[in-house]
Amino acid sequence: MASAALPGLDRRFEALVIDWDAAAPWNGDLSPLVEELCGLGLDVAFHTAAGTASVNGLLPARCPGPGRLTVHGDRPAPDAVSRILAECWARGIGPEAVLVVGPDRTRLVERILTDQLDRRRRGDPPVPSPPPDWRLDIDGSDPQFSRVYESLLALGDGRLGTRGSPLVGDGDHTPSVFHIGVYAGTGPDTELAPLPLWSRLGAEEAPGPYRRTLDLRTGVLSGEGPLTSVRFSSLARPGTVVLRAGGSAALLPPHGRHTVPGPVAAAFHDDRRGGVLDRIGVYHPDAATAEQARDAAARAGFERLLYEHREAWARRWAVADIRIDGDPELQRAVRFALFHLMASVTDEGEAAVGARGLTGPGYRGHVFWDSDVFVLPFLAATHPAAARAMLEYRYRRLPAARTVARRYGHSGARFPWESAGEGVDVTPFSARLPTGEVIRVRTGEMEEHITADVAWSAACYLDWTGDTAFAGTAGRDLIVETARYWASRVRYDADGTGHIDGVIGPDEYHEAVDDNAYTNVMARWNLRTAAELDGVPPGESASWRAAAAALVDGYQPETGLYQQFAGFFDLEPVRIAEIAPRRPIAGDLLLGLDRSPRAQVVKQADVLMLYHLVPDELAPGTLLPNLDFYEPRTSHGSSLSPAIHASLLARAGRLDEALTWLRVAARTDLEDITGSTAGGLHLATMGGLWQALVFGFAGVRVTGGRLLVDPRLPSAWHLLDVGLRYRGVPLRLRIGPDAVTVEAESLTVRRAGDLWEVVPR
Amino acid sequence: MSIVLAALDTSATAEPVLAVAHRIGKAFGLPVEVLHVLAGGGRVPEGLAAVGVPLRVAYGDVVDRLVDAGSSDDVAVLVIGARGDQDDPRPLGTTAVGVATAVDKPVVVVPPGADTHAALNRVLVPLEGTRLTSLAPRFLIELGPEAAYEVVALHVLEPDSLPAVTDQPQHEQSVWAREFLARYCPWGIGPVRLVTRVGRTAELVPAAAHELGCDLIVLGWSRELHRGRARVVRTVLEQSPLPVLLVPVPPDRRTAPGVGAVRGVVRR
């Protein structure tokens, strides 16, 4: 059937909704058509006011899937259509991909079905049609930004990540495939191992313009140009990749199968039917397993793989999505961030989440506190299995951390500042700065707070999940062993005060400082938290409490300020907010490497980070004076900084400032603010963005087994709708200007003083 | 056939101009010819006739004739003296200004004190981090694809163009530098070393050229030397004893978004 015969309908749809009553009776049995269409992934829904039995009698189709045949007996018809559209949405099919055949078109039903069948038989790809706040479009191939685009358009299934390079094109691109936790090299040179490519089809010269669209809702990257294509990294079958490309046959490889060996074997199946290629690949460390999974995926075929992948993403979004009514640009940026966070972390085994996730080679895939403190909370609160895998990564490296602690002459476990496959420190020893100077890198030696950060992430996961199995095993070990480290790390003065000397805090402009407030308070929190755990020998827990009590924290009651480290208040007062041409800015370069260590210029939240992570460890009512003191002294020369400040400013009720920094965080990669997005996306910034929205603006806090909500909503936002999973129960928190409501099967919300508390029904 | 044309007069600059022209010719595989302009009649100095390369003689206004000759299709590069007198405080003498601002092709300007013996081993290419100026050094590969000299790209971060973040400098700088080269040094010359400095470009280019042992500085410019423009060109010509290859680029120097051009920033 010529598509021109169906004006306005000449494209592939993912679901059909048909008014049975207006269309029946049929001239013949539609069952064969419907069965084949469902088998090729189309959802078909009939609605009738005459009872479903009447439909079943006339349409005895049996659909084994993946597409579903459903019959709805709702009345009136608009209600039925709404319900069907909602069900489609839950399977990852947006309304723009659904054809609702109204009463005026029902005479065309058979022709529509036949047309849709023709399209699927000949391999038409799905049409990228998400609304603007669910998509990222890249037009053309500007060589100056092509590598940034590849990062922005990266695909991931948690296990495997692939940069969004054009299928064909020139050498301006850096296509890469990475497998989480699979590294090559040794020591500081350890890097994510580059794996065989699956989404490049060879031709060096791009034969024409093209456009790429990343559907954030379904994780499908579509391309138009010399080849029309869709590709995805299957969230339903992590490690499985799927490409359908059509167009010039000369650009497509022949039919065939092959396996590329390596640290991760890649088994491919190329199915060529004329001008259409279906490529299915599976990456797995074991080649035989890869080939078996490849064959199974090939048997399932493109349509089934697409269907289940789309459903898997829909399930993740159902819990994780955040809606911001009143700020469409921010809305899209938030979904962009959440998409990449979800795509970068596996929920099986262990998850070594590098600073750039699986979106690029930057930072060599090394794992920093970025993953524990910035990325993990989002997953703990939406998809705990992935957070658990991140903690498993740390847990399996406890032996290495114990060895490091012993090497430094201490007890317990000390986690490395930069970690990769083995769990030993892989921080480079030197760096060349933009000034041309080569400096010694001391973070590996001194940025010890990561040890408490790991413990904090374990506690964060426990707060959200109440995972008793974890609490009694890995969680306990992580918190206890890190506490043992701090207990042995504290130096006591004659007056009994405890100190931690020679560290680097989050503010890395100042090295080898004593009593960094962030390090000391996080260590204190670590000690106190461990002391409360069951099974700790009483003598040991008492000693931890004593160490915690002895640790100085730099608090000055007369001002309400915490001193960032011993002597910080004696440094040259510099309000960088007043002298910098803009912020964020690399404050150390602006002031010079000689001056910045001697000045009160701060790279990122240090004291303030404590208000974000462990507010109960701090003197009540002291956020404001510390915010007033430290924020103007902060250059935000770390991509981690803007989101945390947005969160704290929101808590302080300074919503205009909070929005300013929130938007900086939101645009970090989309506008390549750092100039380094080409090397991969800033996952920690994305995690920080989520935290700013949820912990800052929504004011969500899990403490003492309670889920509290204390929102601060900007006037331009009509609604902030946050998805969470608390103690196994998914919920949607809807925050309006005047009220908070909860949508969940077993939870409700009630007033608790000035706050809201989510409680069982 | 393309040539390197050396404009020689009778000043002290003539010797270094010819030496540099030979170096350029050797590096790019081009023959060298000499041009002398007789402004007021008279005879070609004997020394010029004996330099061992073809000599062209033109008559009339020096600037006009040099511009005419330099604009000729067969001239790939014009080499001129910066100024006749080593003690002249101006970066370019009157003749050099007239020629360099009028000729729409690469012009090598040779200061009076330039080393006449140095080989062309290392070329310094300051890059602003803009699309247009990044095109200027493309000329190097067009002329000498097999050139044996090392190219050192220099990017100076001024206060307004400092990076937004340094994050973890042991990783950040390499990611940033790789991307900077990919964007602004896409000439396919082969390995190009990127050197960065923080400060004022005009001051740091001559210093870096000296520090890095470069033999030639390549600068893109809009051929405008009046006050307020070409500060880097003027300062380099004033302060550096190295020959400077000026490559014309269109005057529009809007900064490209992306590297070095932060948009998502908070201004005071």
Number of strands of chain A: 31
Largest interface: A-B, 57 and 40 residues
How can the largest sheet of chain B be summarized? 10 strands, mixed
Count of strand segments of chain B: 10
Whole-number radius of gyration of chain A? 28 Å
Give start-end ranges of low-pLDDT stretches of chain B.
253-268
- Helix/sheet category of chain A: alpha+beta
* Helical percentage of chain A: 25-40%
**Radius of gyration of chain B, whole Å:** 19 Å
The number of distinct helices of chain A, counting runs of at least 4 residues, comes to 24
Shape of chain B: elongated
Query: How would you spell out the order of helices and strands of chain B?
Result: EHEHEHEHEEHHEHEHEHE
Name the assembly state.
heterodimer
Strand content of chain B: 15-25%
Q: Numbering strands along the chain, what is their spatial order in the largest sheet of chain A?
A: 5-11-12-13-14-17-16-15
Helix percent of chain B reads 25-40%
Poorly predicted segments of chain A: none
Instruction: Please state how the strands of the largest beta sheet of chain B are arranged side by side.
Output: 3-2-1-4-5-10-9-6-7-8
What is the rounded distance between the termini of chain A?
A: 55 Å
Key features of this structure:
heterodimer; A: 761 residues; alpha+beta; eight-stranded antiparallel beta sheet; B: 268 residues; alpha/beta; 9 helices; 10 strands; elongated
Q: What can you tell me about this protein's structure?
A:
The complex is a heterodimer of chains A (761) and B (268). With 761 residues, chain A is an alpha+beta fold. In chain A, strand 11 and strand 12 (220-224) form a beta hairpin. The mean pLDDT of chain A is 94. Helix content of chain A is 36%, strand content 18%. Chain A contains 24 helices and 31 strands. The longest helix of chain A is centred in the middle third of the chain and has 34 residues, at 287-320. In chain A, helix 2 (31-39) runs parallel beside helix 5, helix 9 crosses helix 24 and helix 10 (384-396) packs across helix 15 (474-489). Chain B is α/β, with parallel strands linked by helices. In chain B, strands 3-2-1-4-5-10-9-6-7-8 form a 10-stranded mixed beta sheet, with helices on both faces. In chain B, strand 2 (32-38), helix 2 (46-49) and strand 3 (55-59) form a beta-alpha-beta unit. At the A-B interface, strand 19, helix 19 and helix 23 of A face helix 7 and strand 8 of B.
